Model the fold of this input.
Amino acid sequence: MYTSFHDFGISDKVIMSLSEMGFEAPTPIQTAAIPQALKGKDIIGQAQTGTGKTAAFGIPLLEQRPDVSMKSRYPYALVLTPTRELAVQVCEELGKMGARAGVACLPVYGGQSIELQIKNLKRGVDIVVGTPGRLLDHIQRKTLILKEIRTIVLDEADEMLNMGFIEDIKKILGETPEGRQTMLFSATMPSEILGIAKNHMKKPAHVSVDAGQMVVAKIKQVFYEVREEDKIKALTRLIDVEGPALTLVFCHTKKEVDDVSGKLQQMGYPAGALHGDFTQSHRDEMMRKFKNGDLDILVATDVAARGLDVPDVSHVINFSIPQDPEGYIHRIGRTGRAGKPGMAITLVTPRQYRQLRLIEQSAKTRIMKEKLPTGAEVKKAREDDLAAGLEEMIAEGKHAALYHLADRLLEKYSPRDLAAAAMHMMLGEAEVEEIEEVRGGSYEGGKKGFARLFMTVGRKDKIRVEDIVRSIAAEANIPARRIGNIALFDTFSFVEVPSDLADRVIGAVNDSIIKGRKVKIGHARKRKQG
Ligand code: ADP
Ligand code: MG
Done:
């Protein structure tokens, strides 16, 4: 029904701005939320990251702007975000969408000069986007007047709860006019959020998109098992071989961010650090450089995991495993933005293996184990990189300034010796440090004498345990009672069968049809003991 932005009946100026931003058609969450929000309804919106939630609330927000003639100097809309970076980003996006309509947005957050903010607020703005603490500060100083507020938006509401903003949020909600519209957007919906909704919203419309599949399909997810002490080596190997465009590396603590970014810099990688202890101007600077591509690698704590939208992040690397499934979803959601492919890599120590499996289950996703690139692969990648660099230099002609030196040396040496020596100098000794392989690989918890098989069907295919038992028994012609435990997940399952029957089962069941679905079956990857 809504296949173009015109179908929403929104103003031409906003449509023009959207098309200038390259938005051609609304995304599913926008299709679901915008018509309801335009009617003035309260909204609870849930959709995976990177699906365009900002415009889902932003477009209705822009449409609610009072007529210019009536325009007062007080803001008519307020957007709350958990982090400073997100406040800046959401404000920028609203500013772009409202550019043609002349809507003035102001970001307001701690760490930035309050005097400057006061000055800008006095000048008169339409929409204020800010973090709860600083907003409350302005409200209490009466430098932010809320009496004209028509709409308030809580973006990344669950994260604001996690960060302990709940009381601030309630206070702010209490300060806004009764008749206002409230919109709440989040990728996950814990029960406290629904509590806010109950107490502060009026018959909200729930809009959600594909809640079952929380992880963007275009993100390839893998993990590597490494010892703690080998993580840095593993990280650099991966960066060398993957040749990422922009990489976000997530660490657990500020100290770890400092360590990892410091070591990368020492080794000559263009890396920057981002965490809450830096001054705001440093944080802004890092984000700017990263967005511009002046910095290829940004090492960060979870402050950077929420909502940030840097379109060219090709790789997210979890240097430390996230604390919980939600953290995982948010971190990896920084790649694969706006339909682009992305890669999410998690480094896992043998002890964290189980944690990874839990994340995998709750996030309803599958994270495949990969083997780290070998030393030889790393060397090859570095050589390819050098070769590409040389070709580029020759194409640009920058090397011509050194022809005289080349000529002089060519009197003595062959071109081959000369080129190889120069390249050797550039690569350095380039020894790739050893990484000890994590041994064992037989974590398989299952019953003795049983093999664990992986099947490509699950609950989502409306398949039950009985269906699997019946099919295996029939196809492989074995008694049902010999089939062991079955673990059903949304899109896949694990089945235990006696080891001596495993190959027979695989041969008979692979490519067979269960409940109308073609099934692939094979040996499950091994897990570590523990
Ligand atoms: P979310 O808040 O759901 O994580 P964002 O609002 O940050 O997602 O949007 C993700 C990216 O998709 C942004 O770069 C945004 O500009 C882009 N985007 C949003 N809506 C559209 C659309 N309708 N068409 C094309 N790109 C869009
Ligand atoms: Mg967002």
